[in-house]
Amino acid sequence: MNLARRTFIKGAGAAGTVAVAVAAGLLKPTEVLAAEWNKAAFEAKGVPDALKAMGVASPADSKDILIKAPDIAENGAVVPVEVTSKIAGTESIALLVEKNATPLAADFNLMNGAEGYVSTRIKMGQTSNVRVVVKAGGKHYAAVKEVKVTIGGCGG
Amino acid sequence: MAEPMRIRATMAGDVADIKVLMNHPMETGQRKDAKTGQLVPAHFIQTVKAELNGKPVLDAQWSVAISRNPFLGFKVKGAKAGDKVTVSWTDNKGDKNSAEATVA
Description:
The structure holds two protein chains of two kinds. Helices cover 28% and strands 38% of the residues of chain A. Chain A contains three helices and nine strands, in the order H-H-H-E-E-E-E-E-E-E-E-E. In chain A, strands 1, 3, 5, 6, 8 and 9 form a six-stranded mixed beta sheet that branches. A three-stranded antiparallel beta sheet of chain A has the order 2-4-7, with no helix packed on it. Chain A is globular. The C terminus of chain A is likely disordered. Chain B is an all-beta fold. Chain B has a four-stranded antiparallel beta sheet with strand order 4-3-6-7, with no helix packed on it. A three-stranded antiparallel beta sheet of chain B has the order 1-2-5, with no helix packed on it. The chains are: A alpha+beta, B mainly beta. Chains A and B meet through strand 4, strand 6 and strand 7 of A and strand 3, strand 4 and strand 5 of B. Strand 6 of chain A pairs antiparallel with strand 4 of chain B.
C-alpha cells in the first residue's frame, strides 16, 4: 500500500510543477489588483501569516487605537466591535480574531474624509484576542482586546 | 439578492455618521445542514464600497467572520446634509446589491 502511494507521489511530481506554475500565474493578477479580495490574507490560518499576506511587518503597539467590544460575549455569532483610531492619517483598519480558524475578519480602507472609525459585528469561535491593525502614513500600529465567549452547549 | 439594504446617515457636527444594515446569510462554509448533514457552502460578502456624492470613502474586504445580516458603521468628515451616500457589496458568488440614502 505504501509502495503504491510512493509511486503515485513520484508520478505526480511532474504534474506538480505544472500545477505550481499555474498557481503562480493565477496568483499574480490578484496581487496586481490591490482592491480585489485578498484571498491569501483571508485564508491564512494564523495571525503572522495573515499579516504577512497583508504586507504588514511588526506593527507597533498604540494606545491611540480604541477597541470597544464586550468583555464577555454570550453569543459568539454576533460580537459588536467598534474601533476608533486617533492616529492622524489613518488609511486602513483591519480586524483579526486571533483564535478563529482564519483570523482576518475584515479590512477597511478609508479615504476622502472618512474618519478613523469603523463599527461592525463579527463572529468568534471561542474566547480570543481581537487584534486591530491600523495603517497610517505607511506605518502599521496595533492594539488588542480580549473578548470572552461563553460557549453554552445547553444554551445556558 | 434583491433584499433591501438599509442606510441611515445623520450629521453630528461636521461629521456624517453612517449606519448600514445589509441582508446576507454570511455562510461560513463550516456549518452542516441539519437535515442533510452536508456542509452548507460558503456564501458571504467579500467587498463593500461606500461613496459620498460619488467619491469613494470606504472600501472594505470581508471574510466569513462578519456576522449574518452585517452591520457597518463609519463616519465621514466634511459631509453635509443633502449629500448622497451610496453603499454597494459583492459576495463570493458574484451577487451584488447597492443602496442609496441622503444625509439628514
